[in-house]
Amino acid sequence: MANKAKELLKQGKLALGGWESLNNAGAAEVMARAGFDWVAADVEHAAHSVQDFAYMATAVKAQGCVPLARVFDKNMRSIRRILDAGAMGVIVPMIRTAEDAREVVRAAKFPPLGARGAGAGPFCGYGITLDESVRSGNDDTLVMVMVETKEAVENIDEIMSIDGIDGMFLGPFDLSCSYGFGGDITNPVVADAMVKAREVCRKYGKAAGMHVIPNDTAILSDAIEKGFTFLALSFDSNFIYLGSKGMLETARRAAENLKGQ
C-alpha cells in the first residue's frame, strides 16, 4: 500500500489526519472510514502496546488510510518496533538538535540511509513481502519530528536540512512552556517561534504540521493559509464527546418542544 499521506505532502497538498488516543482499533477504523488520509496513535501519551498498535494499523489500512504513530521517544527500539508493527510513518517527540534528527533517520530508514534492521513483522506480511517492503521502505516511510522546545527552534535550520526528515509537527503548549510562558500559546514570542519553524520548513521544501482541535472554519483556514499541510484534526475521545453531547442536546430540545405543544 502506497503512503498517500507522504505523497500528498510531497505535492504540497493537505494531508488530513486524526489523533487516536483511546487505544482502540475500532475507533481508529471508524476514523479511517470517515475519510482521513492518516490516523496517528498517540503511543507517547496513551496506553498502547506494540501489539495494540499492530491491530490498529491493520484496521486503518483496511480502509485505505495510512497508520502513523507518535512514538515514545527517538530511541531506535521505540521507532523500529512500531514501524515493524505496521506504522507507515512516525511522529517523534522532543527533537532538539540535528543529531537528534539524525538518530531518528537512522532508526526509521533501512541502509544506506539508516540502520533499521529487517525482519518478518506485520509491516511486510510477516515476511511474505519482505524484499518488496524493504526496497520501498525508505521512500514510503513518513518521518515527522516534533518541534516543542526553544532549543529545537534555535536549531530548526539544521534539523530540517537532514535527508530523511519529511517535516515538523509543532507542539505549541510544550513550546510555550519551554519559553517560560506556561501554556500561553498566543504569546508573541511563542508565535514568532512558530513562524520561524514554519518558514524554515518552506525553505527546505518540508511539510509543516500542527494539531487543530476546535471544529472552527476560521482556525483551520488560518492554519492552511499559513502553510500548514500536515494537519491533525482533533482526537477520538473529543469526537465521541462532542457527538454524544450534540445528540443529547438535540434529544432534550425535542422533548422540550413537545412539552410546549
**Approximately what portion of the residues adopt beta-strand conformation?**
15-25%
Strand order of the largest sheet: 1-2-3-4-5-6-7-8
On the 0 to 100 scale, the average pLDDT is 95
Using the CA coordinates, give the radius of gyration. Answer: 19 Å
* Overall form: globular
Helix content: 40-55%
What is the CA-CA span between the terminal residues? 57 Å
Please work out how many helical segments DSSP would assign: 12
- What structural category characterises the helix and strand content? alpha/beta
Query: Helices and strands, in N-to-C order?
Result: HEHEHEHEHHEHHEHHEHEH
Which helices and strands occur, and which strands form pairs?
Layout: H1 4-10, E1 15-20, H2 25-34, E2 38-42, H3 50-61, E3 66-70, H4 76-84, E4 89-92, H5 98-108, H6 130-140, E5 142-147, H7 150-154, H8 156-160, E6 167-170, H9 172-178, H10 188-204, E7 207-212, H11 217-225, E8 230-235, H12 236-259
Parallel strand pairs: 1-2, 1-8, 2-3, 3-4, 4-5, 5-6, 6-7, 7-8
Helix pairs in contact: 2-3, 4-5
Explain what you see.
The chain is an alpha/beta fold. The chain has an 8-stranded parallel barrel, surrounded by 8 helices. The longest helix has 24 residues. The protein is globular and about 75 Å long. Helix 2 packs parallel to helix 3 and helix 4 packs parallel to helix 5.
Notable traits:
single chain; 261 residues; alpha/beta; 12 helices; 8 strands; globular
